Amino acid sequence: MRLPIQPASWIPDWARRAVFYHIYPLGFFGAPSHNDHTEDRHYRLARLRDWYDHLRQLGVTAIYFGPLFESSSHGYDTADYFVIDRRLGGNELFQQIVGELHDRGIRLILDGVFNHTGRDFFAFRDILQNGRDSRYVDWYRINWAGNNRYQDGFTYEAWEGHQSLPKLNIENPEVRNYILEVARMWLGDMGADGWRLDVAYEIDPSFWWEFRRACDEARPDSFLVGELLHGDLRKWVAPDLLHAATNYQLYKPIWSSLNSANFWELKANLDRAFHSEWGLYRNIGMMNFLGNHDVTRILSQLEDARHIYPAMLLLMTLPGIPCLYYGDETGMTGRKEDGDGALRQPMPGAGETWPDPDRYIFEALKRLSAVRNAHPSLVYGTYSSLEAGPTVLGFLRQHSMEVAVVVVNSGKEPASLRVAVGREGIQDGTVFRDALNPDDQRFAVHSGSLQVESIYPGWGRVLIANGG
């Protein structure tokens, strides 16, 4: 057996091993959609305590919180980076929650929206009041010869043209220092463990170089993941830049290959990204997901709801850090074309009937996360494709301690698959057991191949053998 090099060794180990759970707080807790910054605080964040046992059962070890800071509407139009949104609670409550999560072995990262602010942010308000005489006039890129839909008498760069989201001038040293101060405060004083960085692709990597150093000083094991959609992700993710990227380049091939009975599509994408010898992203950190607050929920994306199980199996066994979107485990649905609100509905109450009333998805995820958390090959192992067909896929994850052969069957009937593992250094006589479906079956390598029988429909096998 080969002893592969562990990829992305600069990632904090707690993050490499994590199963993340993505919460969009304003939606999760059913907060009002608008904030006029005058209402009393409502401590909705405290209701997270009702879900601690739920998270533990799911095998979650880290939470990615969507926007928590004071904003005027959806959270991405920040008004104050130093306080928790009054619709969710306050800083003291947040610190309590952080301590309680840490006591339970759960880390948390925050959504850092540093490319743009809302119009209620103090610097932009000062420009509205004082015009060209504002001391913050260079915090944004303003054109005094234009006008905007608010009739301010000037126009400005905004995120994707949305004038409710004026774009910060990151080249301004005052702006850079302000953002670094925000980062240090939430990591150092408030106890957060890292950042998910909104539209990181819009900010030059030179800034993320500075940001990484500030975060390392405030919390040496902090974790930084950038929202990256396209292009060569290695521009932003590197040992001295961001630790990981959101893996949009894997998100679509998973559901597309399931919908079209075309696992060759997924195999080609996985080879391009993760092949142990020449994959583009084999040595960088990737955060994998099946849905988030910006895209159609996975159950609405899949043409056959039964494919949720092979999709979740893939999420938990492919290279990278898995991130669950809140409510997917309850059977929640929602389509992007129906507006963002459809993707950000309140989480069903712990005692309420779920959209998946028998909780089959939840129980499947419990099994899958337990297997991932128990096996270093699924966390640290390199990746090699083995076989693919319309509805079957097999791949190998190798680690010095053990090797895993994962086979997935999205079809409606049991399947079998013969996978050539000898070419990957697996010796004849190596015996595998199924960690996902513990039964008495054992699978041994003969003549360089492993014959895997009875791959359950809409499910799969995770075969584990000890390292040599």
**Which CATH-level-2 architecture of the largest domain?**
Alpha-Beta Barrel
CATH topology of the largest domain: TIM Barrel
Radius of gyration: 23 Å
**Which regions are unreliable across 5 or more consecutive residues at pLDDT < 50?**
1-6
CATH homologous superfamily heading of the largest domain: Glycosidases
Shape descriptor reads elongated
What is the typical, i.e. mean, pLDDT? 95
Largest sheet: 8 strands, parallel, barrel
Structural class call reads alpha/beta
Number of helices: 13
Compact overview of the structure:
By secondary structure, the protein is of the alpha/beta class.
Question: What can you see in these coordinates?
Answer:
This protein has 13 helices and 20 strands. It is an alpha/beta fold and 468 residues long. An eight-stranded parallel β-barrel has the order 1-2-5-8-9-10-11-12. The longest helix is centred in the middle third of the chain and has 17 residues. Helices cover 27% and strands 22% of the residues. Strand 14 and strand 15 form a beta hairpin. It is elongated.
